[in-house]
Fold this sequence. Notes:
By secondary structure, this protein is mainly alpha-helical. Helices cover 82% and strands 0% of the residues.
Amino acid sequence: MSKLQVDIKDRMELLTHLETILRDEECLPESTDTIMADVEAIRNRANEDPEEISLFKASLRSALVHSKPMLKDTMRGCDDLIEGFAGSPEYTN
Length: 93
């Protein structure tokens, strides 16, 4: 079988993996944007009113706590997919 000729079952499995990767990667910019906005808010507030900095630090910590598991899941999914390709005889270099 040629490398370009993949049966339907393998093609559907590949498409499922690609959809998962794309869905997970779509979430990353949103999380990064949220963290960057929090950092900007902390900088602005620190310059305006140093007493309120603790509230913004707490907000940033919360955003980090919520985004870390999502990032870990995405990276784990990518690692699993790469391992799957590496272990497959059809996808060798």
